[in-house]
Amino acid sequence: MGLALLVLIWLITFFSTYFFAAKTWWLPHGAAAAAQWIDKQFALTFVLMGIVFVAAQLALGYLVWKYRERPASGPVQYSHGNTTLEVLWTALTAILFIGLNLMGSSVWAHERFEPAQAGSVPVEVTGMQFAWYFRYPGADGKYGATNPKLMDPSAGNEAAIGLDTSDAAAKDDVVAGTMYLPVNREVDLTLRAVDVIHSFFVPGFRFKQDAVPGLAIHMHFTPTETGDYEIACAELCGLGHYKMHGMVKVVSQEDFDKWLAQREAEKQ
Ligand SMILES: [Cu+2]
């Protein structure tokens, strides 16, 4: 029995480590400025945790086998444990955990606490059950007023987020169900949620941030390659959560300007 458990534990360890090492299910290609830093941090965390995981599981299998029940085994003795060892591994775990957090915090803090560069593209993201809407402030650079009483989700776009068309600043606001972004320009994001907490997750940009009702959360990032990128809601937000899906289209500055001008024209 001891030997069977040893083999089982080591086999589970081997296969679970193999799928990570072989990158069988891995992140898509990173297409944002911060992606390489986030991937480095991600890889470092995985390697360190992988070493701890493999060592602990190998030791577990070995000890299960070593202390198996044998005919000659005496009565069981209870051990108090080893206080020095307990203090040591608790301290090491704390150092590892806090250290990795400190190392990774600078990339996140840069996207969160430092303001976006001058000349960045302002986009407001609104999450609602179960869709994403993207608002561009237009030529005046100002988002117009919204009013919850004017919200009509079934009408989509401007009406869905309750844009108050009587507000002068709202006249040139463009609202779309697909996010268009120009390549290599920083995006100044404002995240809002209508009903419950949603999470704006673009795996290709390594970007994830909760959208919380009552808060306007500012973040910024820079897409570096043109193409289509999937948006997922990463917060279980209700029955339709699975279909709360969207697309980011990263295009050239020229195509972006053309698209925005076309949307402005459609509004008139
Ligand atoms: Cu959601």
Describe this structure in words.
The chain is an alpha+beta fold. Helix content is 38%, strand content 21%. The protein has helices at 2-21, 35-66, 83-112, 157-160, 253-267, and strands at 121-128, 131-136, 174-176, 179-182, 187-193, 198-202, 207-211, 217-221, 227-233, 245-251. The strands form two sheets. A five-stranded mixed sheet has the order 3-2-1-5-8. Helix 1 (2-21) runs antiparallel to helix 2 and helix 2 packs antiparallel against helix 3. The longest helix is centred in the first third of the chain and has 32 residues, at 35-66. The radius of gyration is 26 Å and the shape is elongated. Copper (II) ion (CU) is lined by residues 127, 198, 233, 235, 237, 241, 244.
Secondary-structure topology with pairs:
Blueprint: H1 2-21, H2 35-66, H3 83-112, E1 121-128, E2 131-136, H4 157-160, E3 174-176, E4 179-182, E5 187-193, E6 198-202, E7 207-211, E8 217-221, E9 227-233, E10 245-251, H5 253-267
Parallel strand pairs: 1-5, 4-10
Antiparallel strand pairs: 1-2, 2-3, 5-8, 6-7, 6-9, 9-10
Bound molecules: copper (II) ion.
Residues 127, 198, 233, 235, 237, 241, 244 line the site of copper (II) ion.
